[in-house]
Amino acid sequence: MPLQSGEKGLVSTAFRRLLSRPAGVFWVFLAIYLFTWPGHYTSGDGAVKVDWARGLLFRGSSQLDPALGVAEQYSFYPIGHTLLAMPALVTSHLTQKFLGIRCEAALYTLLFVLNGALLLYLMARYLWPIYGVRRSWVTVAILGLATIWWPYTKVDLTEPVLFTTFFGGFLLLRSGRPFLGMLVAGLGWTLRPEAVLFVGLLGLWYLGRTRRLGHIVPMGLALIPAVVINAAANWIRWGKLFGFEGGYGAEAPGFEYPFLAGFFGILFSPGKSLFLFTPPLLLGFLGWNRLRERTATSLDAWLFASVFAVSVCLYSKWWDWASDDAWGVRFLIPGVMLMTLPAAEILHRRFLTGVLFTAGVAVQLLAVLLPPLEYVVMVHDCPSSRPAVHSKAGPRQVDLEDMWYHPRYGQLPGHWTLLRVMLGMPPARQPERQTRFTGLSLYECFPAEQWQAHATPDFIWWRLVDKARGVNRVPASSP
Which residues are within 8 A (CB) of 44 and not within 5 positions of it... i.e. 6 or more apart? Predict the structure, then answer.
């Protein structure tokens, strides 16, 4: 039965009231992210964390299932992500037992959709009192659609959840609740060990803002739950409260990558630069000084810059500074999001804002329409060949260094090529003379059938339609 005019007016008024509040941000972006939700497992790291949860819940052991195919007997990741997976596993287990419906991957990956909308709600809570409704909505749209945040609602990686705990703790501290704020932020320590650095910066920011040294004790006590959780996780795995075993072992040297090479790669490389994957980050840098000049946000600006600088310096030394498998550099999600937030200060520069917002959305769509990790999986697993240029050396494979440093073989060209193949418009072969002097095109480096196999839409509703038609297409990046 169609709505009467008066009922339509009530619905319109209720909708406008919702959009005038930060809660409206949560519901709008939850709808967007649900539409692009893949509903399947996406990373090998996530598979290990989830299997640890299965072991604790259903096998009565911390040992990983040998069928998982990993060399380690125990997960070497912190336990926080594993604990977050447990409600979804229990619910899906009961659903399958009593209703015969398998929904484990869907329920588990829904966590990252909810986390994506929650973070934007928290950012709206921060922005609303400072900038009002209109500017806050524009800023949230930039953060939610034109940064790497959107693609990370589609993958089961830990860094986005870590950032939500950090920002939630930041808001609680800012509202004058030091114990609860540090408790929430401290739980990030159970997700990634380096989160302790961000918690330390948050504590210094709070003390500088309030000048209340007496709050050091309750803030320190608030970190005890994280310490206890980490110690308990160590004990059930390795029989000791503190320390670390496992990891990448002899495969990786740790924090021994040349700093300048990693620093250049993170900020300026043609294949992994933060500015390429999040064009509005430039807006944030341009608006940072205005944020610093506001009395109410001056120390906030310094906190945001500190998190960004510490992250860049820390991960520039990490052996896997590019954080593959990832869309861009996933380690820098907290720093990138915080330093994009000051874009709210220069929205009056409409042309620049419009250009960078459009560029940012276009970049994210390359990883939203397709699985975000698909091209990285191709580089890892698919046979490829490209001849050397101006050299008699034989053919070589496209590898990760090509993806990092060569503009032709990076993730953005890779996903653009996948999108063209998916739309039935694959690139044409380039002339042999051009190949001889400029190198083989990316499309010609991999067999055409590999491009076709990996060019798969990545939405749960699309897969359900395929299933109804008797077609079973699962992205290759799904473990």
Answer: 70, 325, 479
pLDDT of residue 478: 64
Residue ranges in 20-79 assigned as alpha helix (H): 22-35, 44-54
Q: Is 177 left (phi over 0), alpha (psi -120 to 50) or beta?
A: beta
User: What pLDDT is recorded for position 397?
Assistant: 86
pLDDT at 463: 83
Distances (CA, A) of 216 to 203, 212, 271: 8, 8, 43
* pLDDT at position 245: 61
> How many whole angstroms separate alpha carbon 112 and alpha carbon 94?
21
Amino acid at 279: P
- pLDDT at position 424: 95
Tokens found for residue 329: 């550099």
**Residue 72 and residue 78 in contact, taking contact as beta carbons nearer than 8 Å:** no
Q: Which two tokens stand for residue 240?
A: 């000791």
What stretches in the chain show pLDDT beneath 50?
249-250
So what's the pLDDT on residue 473? 64
* Nearest 10 degrees: Cα torsion 341, 347, 350, 352: -40
Q: Looking at residue 415, what DSSP letter applies?
A: H
Q: Which residue has the tokens 């440093």?
A: 405
Take residue 411 and report the two structure tokens written for it.
């993730």
Q: Alpha-carbon distance 251 to 29, whole Å?
A: 40
386 secondary structure, DSSP code: B
Contact (Cβ atoms closer than 8 angstroms) between residue 450 and residue 382? yes
Single-letter amino acid code for the residue at 422: M
pLDDT value of position 3:
54
Q: How many CB atoms are located within 10 Å of the residue 397 CB? A: 13
Report the SS3 class of residue 439: coil
Closest CA to 222 of 175, 171, 188: 188
pTM: 0.93
What are the DSSP calls for 118-148, one per residue? Answer: HHHHHHHHHHHHHHHHHHHHHHHHHHHHSST
**147, 336 contact by CB (below 8 A):** yes
Alpha helices in 146-194 (DSSP H): 159-174, 178-186
